[in-house]
Specification:
The complex is a heterodimer of chains A (about 70) and B (about 220). By secondary structure, chain A is mainly alpha-helical. Helices cover about 90% and strands about 0% of the residues of chain A. Chain A has a domain of about 45 residues.
Chain lengths: ~70, ~220
C-alpha cells in the first residue's frame, strides 16, 4: 500500500516539476523590459483612439452644419 | 458627453487589456508558453466580428420590414466593421498557428471554416457592388445578409466542433476549460471582449454617421 502511495506522490511531484519548467518570459519580466512592450502598445492604442476621437468630432461638426442648413 | 459614456468605457477597458494582459500572471502551459496572452487580442476579434455581423443581420431584417434606407446603411456599415474584425482575427490566428501548430495555414477545420465564412461575407459586398439600382441593391443584399449570417454560425462554431480540430474549443479539445479555469485570465479576457466590441461599435457608428451625413448633403443639393 505504502509503495503505491509513494508512487502516486512521485508521479504528482514530477507533474508539478514539469509545470515549473515550462519556459516563460521570466527573464524579460525580471529585467523590467516587459514595461517597454506595454508602453509601446499603449502608445499605439492611445494614438489610434485619439484618431478615432478626432474623427468623431469631425463628423459631429459636419452633422451640426447639416442640421443648421435644413 | 453623457451619451458617449460607452466610448470612454471602451478606451478604459482596452487600456486595461493591454496593461493587465501583459503584466498579470498566466498559467504556464507547454507549447503555447507566453503566447497564451494572444488570447486577449485574437479571440475578442471573433467575438467582435460575430456581434457586428449579428447587428448587421438585424438591420437587414429591419430593412426588409420597412424599406428605410437608414437601416440599409446601418446593415452595410456593421458588416464592413465585422469584416475588418474577421480579417484581423484570421491573420492574428495565422501568426499564432505558425508558432503553436507549426504552420500559418494548417488546414484546420476552424481556420477553413473561418475563411469560408469571410468569403461568404465578401460575396455580400460583391453583390452590393454589382447592382446599380439602390433599392434593389438594398433589398437583395438584405436577403443575402441573412443567409450569410446563417452560414457563418455553423462554419465557425458547429463544424469545427464535430470534426477533429486543434483549435481550443473545437472537436477533441477540452474547449476553453483549461484557460477558463484560470480565474486570473478571465479577469482580463472578459473586459477585453467587451472593450473590443465597444470599439467595433464605435467604428461602425462613425461610418454610419458619415454615410448619413453624405446622404443629407445629397438631399440638400437636390433642393438647391
Amino acid at each position: 500500500m505504502l509503495k503505491y502511495v509513494l508512487l502516486l506522490f512521485l508521479a504528482l511531484s514530477t507533474v508539478a516539476a514539469s509545470a515549473q519548467e515550462v519556459e516563460m518570459a521570466d527573464g524579460m519580466r525580471a529585467e523590467g523590459k516587459i514595461y517597454v512592450v506595454v508602453a509601446i502598445l499603449l502608445l499605439i492604442l492611445i494614438g489610434l483612439i485619439a484618431y478615432l476621437v478626432m474623427l468623431d468630432r469631425k463628423v459631429s461638426k459636419l452633422e451640426k452644419r447639416i442640421s443648421e442648413r435644413k | 458627453m453623457t451619451k458617449n459614456w460607452w466610448k470612454i468605457a471602451a478606451v478604459i477597458l482596452l487600456i486595461y487589456t493591454v496593461v493587465a494582459g501583459f503584466l498579470m500572471g498566466v498559467p504556464r502551459l507547454v507549447i503555447v508558453n507566453e503566447t497564451i496572452r494572444a488570447l486577449y487580442f485574437h479571440v475578442p476579434m471573433w467575438f467582435g466580428m460575430v456581434i457586428m455581423f449579428l447587428v448587421s443581420t438585424l438591420y437587414a431584417i429591419k430593412y426588409l420590414r420597412n424599406s428605410d434606407p437608414k437601416n440599409d446603411i446601418l446593415s452595410v456599415e456593421f458588416a464592413n466593421t465585422g469584416l475588418l474584425f474577421g480579417l484581423l482575427g484570421i491573420f492574428t490566428g495565422m501568426i499564432w498557428a505558425n508558432y503553436t501548430w507549426g504552420s500559418p495555414w494548417h488546414g484546420d477545420p476552424k481556420q477553413n471554416g473561418a475563411a469560408i465564412a469571410l468569403l461568404v461575407y465578401l460575396a455580400y459586398f460583391v453583390l452590393r457592388g454589382s447592382v446599380d439600382n439602390a433599392e434593389q441593391r438594398s433589398r437583395l443584399s438584405a436577403v443575402y445578409n441573412i443567409f450569410a449570417f446563417a452560414a457563418m454560425i455553423p462554419l465557425i462554431f458547429i463544424i469545427p466542433r464535430m470534426t477533429s480540430s486543434m483549435h481550443p474549443g473545437s472537436g477533441g479539445n477540452p474547449g476553453f476549460n483549461m484557460y477558463d479555469l484560470d480565474s486570473k485570465m478571465r479577469m482580463v479576457f472578459y473586459p477585453a471582449v467587451i472593450g473590443w466590441i465597444l470599439l467595433g461599435v464605435w467604428i461602425a457608428t462613425l461610418r454610419v454617421r458619415t454615410r448619413n451625413a453624405e446622404e443629407k448633403i445629397l438631399e440638400i443639393e437636390d433642393y438647391a
